[in-house]
């Protein structure tokens, strides 16, 4: 069961990395900087892959361990590691909601800007049309 504890500690380490990655990118997103979005998602995917591999190893180790063989000290350490994991997962879920909100806000702003550009072009187009019609009338009078 010591190897399960080691795997849980390793998993918590990668959850910390995932959380720190989110924190850094949230700051960028808050400043309107989305330049690293692709590398951000690629890094997250890599960490998620590692976490998945660790989960598989934990399952494999757990199958061979008998719970009665675990002493109280080790059991407490495992429970602390599981509690920490749970807290980190909750924190990461909150970060993900914040990330999605920031991306959605930026997307809405881009859509608004595009709509304004389209509206401005339409107004300019009609202005140019009126100007051409008036100049044609002036040319006809001459």
Description:
The protein is built from 3 helices and no strands. The longest helix is centred in the C-terminal third of the chain and has 70 residues. The chain is rod-shaped, with a radius of gyration of 29 Å. With 142 residues, it is mainly alpha-helical. The protein starts with a helix and ends with a helix. Helix 1 runs parallel beside helix 3.
- Percent of sequence in beta strands: under 5%
Structural class: mainly alpha
- Major sheet description: none
Report how far the terminal alpha carbons are from each other: 99 Å
The total of helices stands at 3
- Give the topology string: H per helix, E per strand: HHH
Rg, nearest Å: 29 Å
What multimeric state do the chains show?
A: single chain
Mean pLDDT: 86
Record field, number of beta strands: 0
Question: What is the helix fraction of residues, given as a range?
Answer: over 70%
Low-confidence stretches: none
Shape: rod-shaped
Brief rundown of the structure:
With 142 residues, this protein is mainly alpha-helical.
Strand and helix map with partners:
Layout: H1 2-30, H2 37-64, H3 72-141
List the main descriptive attributes of the protein structure presented here.
mainly alpha; 3 helices; 142 residues
């Amino acid at each position: 069961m010591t190897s399960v504890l080691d795997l849980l500690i390793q998993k918590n380490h990668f959850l910390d990395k995932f959380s720190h990655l989110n924190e850094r990118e949230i700051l960028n997103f808050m400043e309107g900087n989305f330049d690293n979005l692709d590398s951000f998602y690629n890094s997250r995917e890599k960490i998620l892959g590692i976490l998945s591999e660790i989960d598989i190893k934990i399952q494999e180790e757990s199958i061979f361990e008998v719970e009665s063989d675990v002493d109280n000290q080790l059991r407490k350490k495992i429970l602390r590691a599981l509690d920490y994991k749970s807290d980190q997962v909750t924190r990461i879920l909150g970060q993900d909601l914040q990330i999605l909100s920031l991306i959605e806000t930026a997307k809405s702003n881009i859509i608004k800007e595009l709509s304004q550009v389209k509206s401005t072009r339409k107004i300019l187009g009609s202005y140019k049309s009126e100007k051409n019609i008036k100049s044609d009338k002036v040319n006809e009078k001459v």
